[in-house]
């Protein structure tokens, strides 16, 4: 770790005795199996990942429901048969994404370099020594996307601490090898300081992070809570780029596009969501449709995910109860 707080550094993580409790046995077995699979040719790995995804489809009814709702909202012109086929392909790509996570964590730099089949527009950053924001999407292979761009640029970024201690440990240990300047979603100020000091910072702005700090902006024609941080930085002069990765057979095509300085600053979030939509449409089933992109709704509008209403109501009661206990 760097001595100076102004120098980009990573959060360290230690192996704890509690990670070897019986509750984490399946996690260790699963990741061990994942490691063994990375020794196979990538074509076989991805095939097995697709089969794993087909299994996940049947054992994850709630996530399947979210995926169905999202696809119905975003692709209203598709028939029910077409949507059902898309759902199956999404889960296959999610299964492949699990395999790609193993590739990301344990394969060599040389192996990763060989996966890149096509690279476009990265010369834009050859002469840019300033800090900048690089947006990327939550693809099914997002972990590999991060590893790929780290082979081209010195980058940091933000992550959410995982509730599973073992997965959190493995994720951070792996990322610390190829990223510099990583922060949790509770350390945003630290990341922004490094960005201002010259760090190229990865950020995925395509999830619903709640109403606070967000604006409602169309996403596939549906009003979606959209985090305003990228817009705020753009208005202050930060250069913003969009990084996209799509898998083509067993290789990857990557592109980098800059948001024009002529972009209407007040309309930046619309432009940003347009970038996301265009990137998603290049390979629709490689997007992580399992997250509740439209969870937060404008005031007075009904929720779009019926199964989750009870859970959200329970969490709201728990939050209110906690506030009352702090303010008797």
Q: What would your notes on this structure say?
A:
There is one protein chain. The protein has 328 residues and is an alpha/beta fold. It has one domain. Helix 3 packs across helix 4 and helix 4 packs across helix 6. The mean pLDDT is 91.
Q: How many β strands by DSSP?
A: 9
Estimate the global geometry from the Cα principal axes. Answer: globular
Q: Which ranges are low-confidence, i.e. pLDDT below 50, for 5 or more consecutive residues?
A: none
Work out the count of structural domains.
1
Strand content: 15-25%
Question: Quick one: biggest sheet?
Answer: 7 strands, mixed
Number of helices: 11
Query: Would you list the SSEs in sequence order as H and E?
Result: HHHHHEEHEHEHEEEHEEHH
* Average pLDDT level: 91
Tell me the Rg in angstroms.
20 Å
Structural class call reads alpha/beta
The main sheet orders its strands as 1-9-8-2-5-3-4
**How far apart are the first and last residues' alpha carbons, in Å?**
42 Å
In short:
The protein is of the alpha/beta class.
List descriptors.
two-stranded antiparallel sheet; 328 residues; 7-stranded mixed sheet; alpha/beta
How do the helices and strands line up, and which of them pair or pack?
Elements: H1 25-37, H2 42-59, H3 61-74, H4 80-106, H5 109-115, E1 116-120, E2 132-135, H6 142-150, E3 155-159, H7 165-178, E4 182-184, H8 188-196, E5 200-203, E6 214-219, E7 222-227, H9 229-235, E8 239-248, E9 251-258, H10 268-282, H11 309-326
Parallel strand pairs: 1-9, 2-5, 2-8, 3-4, 3-5
Antiparallel strand pairs: 6-7, 8-9
């Amino acid at each position: 770790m760097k001595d100076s707080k102004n120098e980009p550094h990573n959060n360290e993580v230690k192996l704890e005795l509690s990670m070897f409790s019986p509750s984490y046995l399946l996690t260790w077995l699963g990741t061990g199996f994942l490691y063994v699979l990375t020794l196979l040719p990538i074509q076989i790995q991805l095939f097995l990942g697709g089969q794993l995804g087909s299994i996940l489809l049947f054992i994850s009814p709630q996530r399947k429901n979210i995926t169905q709702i999202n696809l119905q909202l975003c692709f209203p012109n598709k028939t029910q048969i077409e949507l059902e086929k898309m759902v199956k392909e999404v889960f296959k790509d999610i299964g492949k994404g699990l395999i790609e996570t193993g590739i990301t964590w344990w394969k060599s730099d040389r192996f990763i370099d060989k996966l890149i089949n096509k690279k476009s527009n990265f010369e834009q950053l050859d002469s840019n020594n300033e800090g900048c924001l690089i947006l990327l999407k939550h693809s099914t292979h997002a972990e590999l996307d991060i590893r790929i761009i780290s082979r081209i640029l010195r980058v940091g970024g933000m992550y959410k601490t995982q509730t599973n201690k073992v997965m959190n440990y493995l994720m951070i240990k792996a990322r610390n090898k190829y990223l510099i300047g990583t922060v949790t979603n509770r350390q945003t100020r630290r990341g922004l300081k490094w960005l201002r000091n010259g760090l190229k910072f990865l950020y995925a702005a395509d999830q619903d992070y709640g109403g606070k700090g967000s604006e409602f902006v169309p996403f596939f024609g549906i009003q979606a809570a959209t985090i305003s941080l990228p817009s705020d930085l753009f208005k202050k002069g930060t250069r913003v780029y969009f990084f996209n990765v799509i898998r083509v057979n067993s290789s990857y095509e990557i592109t980098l596009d800059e948001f024009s300085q002529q972009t209407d600053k007040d309309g930046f979030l619309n432009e940003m969501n347009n970038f996301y939509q265009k990137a998603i449409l290049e390979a629709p089933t490689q997007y992580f449709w399992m997250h509740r992109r439209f969870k937060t709704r404008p005031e007075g509008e009904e929720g779009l995910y019926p199964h989750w209403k009870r859970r959200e109501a329970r969490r709201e009661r728990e939050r209110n109860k906690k506030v009352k206990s702090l303010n008797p």
